[in-house]
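Listing S7. Sequence submitted for prediction.
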Amino acid sequence: MRIVVCDDEPLARERLVRIVQESGHQVIAQAKTGIEAIIAVKSQQPDIILLDIRMPEMDGVRCAQELAKLEHPPAIIFVTAYDHYAIAALKANAIGYLLKPANKDELLEALDKAKNLNAAQLNEIRKLADPTARPVREHIAARTHRGVELIKLKDIYYFTADQKYVKVRHKEGILLIDETLKELEQEFGDKLFRVHRNAIINLSFLDFLETLDAGQYQIRFKGIDDTLAVSRRHLPALRDKIQSM
């Protein structure tokens, strides 16, 4: 694959170039700023760009947003020292988010993922982020002791508010994220459904609505024993949703 490497730190840029070349791919251009990256992409038409975030003149997220406006934008893999940009990066349609110093195996895995994307998938990823458009994000980013982890939305059972964080219950366990329930509900309204002031569920894992004593209700999920209470306020809408499924 033809790759552009953009990083304002020479040593970091050289390391990425070396890994890419050793893996059999071609580095067709290098850039030190977001503006240089855009110029390189327009002139060279790469398949992928490895993009830092904290750079002078134009940061990586803004650069990614500008690249998305091109007729044939490259797939974007962010390589950065900062984990707190993960959400912004994913909303800018990145297919990967790696923390410096980039692990060689993780970088090669991200490149392989980009290589294996079919045309339809790549077209979806490259769509310009538009607040009026349907979301293209398929992952949720969570900061852990290992760095930034990406959890597939299709593997998440539910989200619950936990003080100032949101708890994510997914197939491999539980993680905390910085996004709010309101933001998640607005972005993934066709996949998620609010059942309580403090909880939204992934409809694909909804098994059935269970009646408890004193007119209380709870949700049961496919594949796990967890249950979630359903508030009286959201009960009518949930019943309508179940009937329409």
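Caption to Listing S7: primary sequence and predicted structure tokens for the chain studied. The two ends are 43 Å apart (CA to CA). Confidence is low (pLDDT under 50) at residues 127-135.
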